[in-house]
Amino acid sequence: MATRSRTRHLLRLADLRASELEQVLDLAARMKERPYGWLHALEGDIVVSLFDKPSTRTRISFATAASRLGMEDQVIRPDELQLGRGETIADTARTLSSYAAAVTVRTFAHSTVEELAAAATIPVVNALTDEHHPCQALADLLTIRELYGSLDGIKLAFVGDGNNVVNSLVEAAGLTGLELTVATPAGYEPALSGDVAVVRDPRLAVAGADVVYTDVWTSMGEESEAAERERVLAPYQVTEELMSLAARRASFMHCLPAHRGSEVQAEVIDGPQSVVWRQAANRMPTEQALLYALITGDWEG
Ligand code: CP
Ligand code: NVA
Questions:
Q1: Which of 15, 87, 105, 159 is 20 to 30 A distant from 112 in Cα terms?
Q2: pLDDT, tens digit, for every residue of 249-271?
Q3: Is 259 a catalytic residue?
């Protein structure tokens, strides 16, 4: 079995070097072909999953990924930890580090995962914060690579709210040859600038795009703004008409969960250009590869 090395975390996609990102995607592709080939790699270890927000894909894909590495996934509700009774995040991290091999965390403030990682001696994986969703981006990149054979020069248009998913796509573009354009209303731009062109007009973003991507208009924790968001973001719905402006065989992506009739028309997400189920399925091998690489320090598997 591979030897343990210094602690690495994935709090945001840019925590990976470009070469490591490529290695994780390569390993994920191999794990996808042979999902049970690493069944004994981390036998006897556990992953602790701390989820402050709901999850369908991330929770279950991590549980499956852990199981296919021979690990158990110990899911803890926030109210089960002493954290809720005033124990510090740092003390929680130190304690978990003496039992588990990794921690996955879905929470609100990004600073929470940073604080955990600062005190942990095991990998901390961001399973979504208000600012980043790096594990989603890993699955998205694997999906695009499978569809187009490469990420280089692929035109990705994101239309809608410039949220956590978009921030991770901005970092993905910075680490790869993806060309990202984001169309958002004023005030809804992604927090990150850099390898991204931000425009107002969704038609401009989508023109000639290979991939059109959207996400919910109201992310978890923003529910009080839902009515205003539906109003402001209405012109950003991904419709069949908008898709017709993209490249002829463009793909439609969505990290899910989706709201048909809000950010996307049912005809698009349920239509022939949609690759959302492939995206969702790719959460598993990318997380299997990520957990393996972070825990063992072996990026080649
Ligand atoms: N895409 C995604 O992270 O889905 P869940 O919220 O169901 O985990
Ligand atoms: N932006 C969404 C992603 C859900 C997977 C949210 O944060 O709720």
A1: 159
A2: 999 999 999 999 999 999 999 99
A3: no
> 30: which 2 tokens?
């191999």
Burial of 237-251, coded b for 16+ CB within 10 Å and e otherwise, reads bbeeebbebbbeebb
* Closest ligand to Cα 287: 1
What span, in angstroms and rounded, lies between the C-alpha atoms of 209 and 121? 42
Of the candidates 133, 145, 229, 254, the residue annotated as catalytic is: 133
The predicted-structure confidence for 83-107, as pLDDT tens digits, reads as follows 989 999 999 999 999 999 999 999 9
Answer yes or no: 106 catalytic.
yes
Q: Which amino acid is at 79?
A: D
Phi-psi domain of 122 (left: phi exceeds 0; alpha: psi -120 through 50; beta: other) = beta
Ligand nearest to the CA of 57: 1
> CATH assignment of 13-133+283-296, given 3.40.50.2000, 3.30.1490.190, 3.40.718.10, 3.40.50.1370?
3.40.50.1370
Catalytic residue (one of 106, 132, 145, 229)? 106
- Dist. CA 64 → ligand 1 center (Å): 14
Domain boundaries, the chain: 13-133+283-296, 136-280
Distance from Cα 297 to the centre of ligand 1, integer Å: 26
Q: Stretch 65-93: mean pLDDT, rounded?
A: 94
Let me know if 135 is a catalytic residue.
no
CATH code given to domain 136-280: 3.40.50.1370
Kindly tell me if the per-residue pLDDT of 65 is higher than 60: yes
pLDDT in tens, 188-243: 999 999 999 999 999 999 999 999 999 999 999 999 999 999 999 999 999 999 99
Beta carbons of 42 and 71 less than 8 angstroms apart? yes
Catalytic residue, chosen from 255, 265, 279, 288, is 255
